[in-house]
Write a structure and sequence with these properties.
The chain is α/β, with parallel strands linked by helices. The chain has seven helices and nine strands, in the order βββαββααβαβαββαα. Bound molecules: adenosine-5'-triphosphate (ATP). GO terms for molecular function: ATP binding; ATP hydrolysis activity.
């Protein structure tokens, strides 16, 4: 369980997150949606203690960061480290030994190749594989579907369902509503650093309609397409 209470975050004099209050439970999948720049990544970075913030992030874990797998939107890899070495490094950090990596390479990545030479989608799949093999309790996936091929997208949806089944906590940001609707128990809409709407499964379509109306309105008509 993660409890976020009155969380605020500023960069300089720019307030990016305002009084965020939300809880994330075990065995549930949460979707965070919002326009570019609404604060999703900043919220994730605060939860992972990669940013300083005001307010409280409480958890029953000794240290959340030891149970958390964070998939960045654009994972970065040092040069001259192979895919396999990267996974080994992350496993070593959790003192996990004796995992046969090759047989668990479900995305069929060229693990002996330098990770920095991977394509965007391959980098994302490598980073995801590594945090999954760490057997974390909490997963934060920042735009996991973005940049990966359709086959991998389907696989990631199945992985999220499996994580839920295993009682993990999963928090996802995505701009693809239909995929969130398929995987999430709750979806929360962030706007200018504030949660302005939340929906459970029964009200996802209502939320989607409202978001479309709010963000698109009659803008497409203004193009005057003929
Ligand atoms: N290190 C930083 N220094 C200054 N401003 C920052 C920094 N990181 C983020 N911001 C600002 O905070 C706001 C929220 O950014 P954030 O990356 O959290 O948004 P987001 O919802 O994840 O966007 P996207 O959908 O484009 O990924 C933006 O205005 C961004 O410019």
């Amino acid at each position: 369980m993660i409890h976020i209470k009155d969380l605020s975050k500023s960069f300089g004099n720019k307030l990016v997150l305002k009084d965020i209050n939300i809880s994330f439970e075990k065995g549930k999948v949460y979707g965070i949606v919002g326009e570019n720049g609404s604060g999703k990544t900043t919220l994730f970075r605060c939860i992972a203690e990669l940013e300083k913030y005001e307010g409280e992030i409480g958890t029953h874990y000794d240290q959340l960061k030891n149970h958390l797998g964070l998939l960045f939107t654009d994972p970065y890899f040092f040069t001259r480290i192979t895919g396999k070495e990267y996974i080994q490094l992350l496993l070593y950090a959790r003192k996990i030994k004796n995992i046969e990596i090759n047989s668990r390479n479900i995305f069929d990545l060229p693990l002996n190749q330098y990770a920095s030479t991977y394509s965007t989608g391959m980098k994302k799949k490598l980073a995801l594989t590594a945090i999954l093999l760490q057997e974390n309790d909490v997963y934060i996936l920042d735009e996991p579907f973005n940049g990966v091929d359709i086959h991998s997208n389907i696989m990631i949806v199945e992985i999220i369902k499996k994580l839920k089944e295993l009682g993990k906590t999963v928090i996802i940001s995505s701009h693809i509503f239909s995929t969130l609707a398929e995987t999430c128990d709750e979806i929360h809409l962030l706007e200018n650093g504030e949660f302005i709407k939340s929906a459970t499964k029964e009200s996802f379509s209502e939320l989607e309609t409202e978001m479309k109306k709010f963000s698109i309105g009659d803008l497409v008509e203004k193009l005057g397409l003929k």
